[in-house]
Amino acid sequence: MSATPHAMMPEATHDEAARFAHVVGLKNFLMRQLEPKWRSLVDEKLTPQLAAEGRDAKGEYRSLERSLARLGAYRTWQQLTVSAQEEMWRSVGECVDRQLPELERRASDPTAGGSVRTDPQFRPPRYLSTVDIHLMPGGYADDRGEGDVRQGAVFDKAAALYHMGRNGGELNDVRGHTLVQHYFDRFPGMTPERILDMGCTVGHSTTAIAGYFPQAEVHGIDVGGALLRYARARSASLGASIHYSQQNAEQTDFADGSFDLVVSSAVLHETSFKALPRIMREAHRLLRPGGVMMHLEVPLRFDTASAWNRVRGLFEALHNNEPFWIGAQQADIAQTVRDAGFADVASGYQPAVRVADRAAEPRFTSTPGPVHVVWYLLSGVKR
Amino acid sequence: MTELDPEGLVFRDDPSKRSSFFAGQADVGRLLGMITALTGEIAMLRARLDTHERLAAEGGFDRTKVEAYRPDATALAERMADDQAMIGRVFKPLSDELDRLLEDPVVQKTLLETDR
Lengths: 383, 116
Hints:
A: alpha/beta; Rossmann fold; 8 strands; 14% strand; B: 116 residues; 65% helix; elongated
């Protein structure tokens, strides 16, 4: 068996590890070998020809997508992209199921730090329940009852494959470190005592953030009991005592002014136009005066996206089950944050880091960059 | 349906069903799914063979040694490169078709005839 980064990570056999490596290779081939050809066809061939007819390819992206779908080759590329994603979940699920009793035994250790609070009456919002986001069977909310950690184990193992090593390998915590670097860049003198991570899944970012503030009380909320039970055990095995609870970020049961720092990591694009202002108002309510809110998001904007990027975005939304993918890129989230009452609102791009450094020269910038190289960061202060 | 709803969300016509790209020919989609899975099995067998060869070079192996073997960074990089080449060979007809489309002005002209 291979060494694992923490006690909860499912171990892969020789053959499972080989299948995982191949799924990464297949996704790499589809994304880096084939997709550039579609990009070239749409952005370099079709866009100029449409422009010569006085037409705007970016504005016509929906009909262009239907046009492309008349090609068998395009439908084959679409199907293979979906099949590769499904193969990832299938192979990871098989690996997890083989060792699920052992993972559940480890997660039930009563001496482990932190806590988990689930709510059998909890219902996830429509934007998370209508389809299984990322095609993960069962979705974030999948829960087989008390003691179940399956979806957490599946999500954790797959996330490292999904990001193809670009989010910090098996710990998948670059986004957590990047959030903290943003905090240090903007508020170098501050140290939070109570922290909330909204939409924490298995605590990838939560645990990384907790590591910088060992005196802080750290909470994470999400919609799935199995995710949260796994998250608690994962954090504990990494030395962090984190309190997880099953709650909707739009309306939590924490008291007013409970936190000094409220964050989310790649969560907003999995919400909705209606949820965004609610989440911002809830974060405002939960912060004490002087408290800071920060959201990390994918650094993509619809207005500057090429025709191919829009077609690709539509594919992501419809077929990788990311229903708010385009909406989030169109939303003026910074304005939503100001409308919620936040002051000193800043939005821009934070270069991804593997370790945050309070003493580092601030690198928060208005210059965009590629996904995983930079992240879009939005932050504000409650006055 | 590809318009965003009032909440900014967009779903397939029937979100409860899997994406289907081959209307009336669902078997084509299933076949591609099977080919995808098959390349995974080829990759796994190749990795196993590679493990055998590397352990043989070290003086021998048995099932336990094979199961316990994990490639180091160099060996893994070699495997990943071999895997990319295998994938490239299996899906060459698709890749070739894309290259052809990029140089086919007639098809490109038909793609401009959208249903806008």
